[in-house]
Amino acid sequence: MTITQNYLERLELNQLTELAKFVVEENFNHHCENVSAQEIISDTQEVYDEELNYFKDSEIFVAKDFSGNIQGSIRVIKWDYKTKLPLQKIFNIDPLSYKYSQNATSVWHIGRFATKKDVKDKTLFRKLMVCAIAPICEQKDGVAFAECDSKLLRIMNLLGIKAEVIGASINYLGSETIPIAMNYAGLEEFYYNNKSLVTSQSINKMSSQTFQNKQYQYQVC
Questions:
Q1: Do residues 111 and 147 make contact, with C-beta atoms less than 8 angstroms apart?
Q2: What angle do CA 29, 148, 110 make, to 5 degrees?
Q3: pLDDT tens digits along 24-44
Q4: pLDDT for 154-187, tens place per residue?
Q5: Cα separation values, 220 from 5, 102, 135, 166, 191, Å
Q6: Helix 37-54 to helix 16-31 angle, to the nearest 10 degrees?
Q7: 214 Cβ partners below 8 Å, 6+ apart?
Q8: Within 13 A of 208's CA, how many CA atoms are on the CB side?
Q9: Number of neighbours of residue 84 by Cβ within 10 angstroms
Q10: pLDDT > 70: percent of the chain
Q11: CB contact at 8 A, 160 and 189
């Protein structure tokens, strides 16, 4: 019998190397055929360094199979308005120039979404996305940014996530990547339709965790 369900947990600091390796390898598995070992090593180090810099203001969620292998990942940052976000570094877009940022009480960044190419759990994408957008939907007046693969963006649209493209695409980590913005109005339908897939009880160590900057108590359900 093949077990298709995965369990969710928050990633700890000592697992960042595992995350970086997973994200890079799965991006290339999905989008590229010929990638050198040196490219993978270089990109893995770059992802690790970046996530280490963001870690104190972020939560990273991973889905693992029952052997403990990562099957999917996603990360959400609560922006401190000082640290440079990927949106700024990759696309040179100022998050505060976005129309909905003017009245937002908080700004978030969602990234490091990746899944195994042969993953069997059909609900995995929705579970990970619920984890990432929970603070925006529970607060109702935040705004979130992301750099999204073009194929993933099509899937998001089909699932009812209404994202706004805010810039031209580039090639990043082996795929066409598009800068997008999301607010509560565009996320609420998806969130409330799928919220039941994720509970605080189903996520290892979730109920008592907070962002280290203590500005937001992170809860799902």
A1: yes
A2: 105
A3: 888 777 656 666 788 888 989
A4: 999 999 999 999 999 988 766 788 999 999 999 9
A5: 19, 26, 8, 28, 11
A6: 130
A7: none
A8: 1
A9: 10
A10: 84
A11: yes
Euclidean distance between CA atoms 95 and 99, whole angstroms: 9
| Alpha carbons 45 and 61: distance in angstroms, whole number | 20
Task: Provide the whole-model pTM.
Answer: 0.85
Where does the pLDDT of residue 17 fall: very low under 50, low under 70, confident under 90, or very high at 90 and above?
A: very high
> Who contacts 27 (Cβ-Cβ below 8 Å, separation ≥6)?
114, 173, 174, 175
CA-to-CA distance for 23 and 110, rounded, in angstroms? 14
- Better-predicted residue by pLDDT, 54 or 210: 54
Say whether 110 sits in a helix, a strand or coil. strand
